[in-house]
Amino acid sequence: MVRVVTRESWGTALRRAARQHSSLFALVLVAALLIANIASLPSFASPGNVPGELGTLAPFVLVAMASTPAIVSGGAGIDLSVAPVMGLVNVVFVVYLLPHGFGNPVIAVPAMVVLGGIIGTVNGAMVALLRFPPVIATLGTYFVLAGVDLDIAPDPVSANQNWTDQLATSIAHIPGAVFTVGGALLFWFLVRKLPYHRALLAVGGSDAAAFSAGVNVSVVRLLAYTIGGMVAGLAGLALTGTIQSADATVWPDYVIVALAAVALGGTALSGGRGGFVGSALGATCVFLIQNLISVLGISVFYLQVAYGSVLLVAVVLGSNLRGRPTLVMAGEST
Q: Is the pLDDT score of 216 beyond 90?
């Protein structure tokens, strides 16, 4: 019996590696950008600056994480409202909670996470139960929240001294970002241990097949938007720690950042594959690109060009590296 051994091409091997490790490209890019940033500004990695840099990074990472579940759930799922939810939490916390004695983290953190979760649930109900197109539903929420944000804080409102400034620096010598980003990652780790996670991936991969297997597609998708809203609420607190004010003009910059980061992190925009770790890596790439542009003295107007380019590159690479679905003919395998 003759055994025939075939050698797979580089392209096939690369696609296989990309399918197995969808965030590999983002990880490599993070390493390259980190080296470039340190080479351009050695103090970037100095111990005294690391907590502040991580604090600035945290809103990028959290808003990308918040966008991930809706996309993973498939059905052209996308949540454009995570950034304005972050903005709403920022202005509500500074304008209402802090001055009235409710700014204590024991009260504020659960309240703001629940607020984000409620808005996410409303989005999820419109998408999963009322069958509104996700872009239309969340774009409507985007505009509503944008108006509410501006109504609450038409001008920036400085925050009184409060505990959130430690989120952008250190808490007991530990970078505050460890608690915000780490809390979201721990939450996602627990979600991955639940049957819900398998159902989420199944629905994102093929909602018809998941429905045939007995999965409640509507509930799974609704909860995906709820999870995204909760993480967006946490992102609002991280943003407050960074800017120490209520500012309704800051969060719009994070809309394209979130989409670019999710795509760059290896989440399939068609659904069915992705997670928080990949989105965190993608957000880190975007943050390092922004920092590098600033260090090199390049005009800030090129930031949008950089964000759009990153999004396009991520989509093109994702399409080519992962390959297109192919039919499995009798006697063939993929």
A: yes
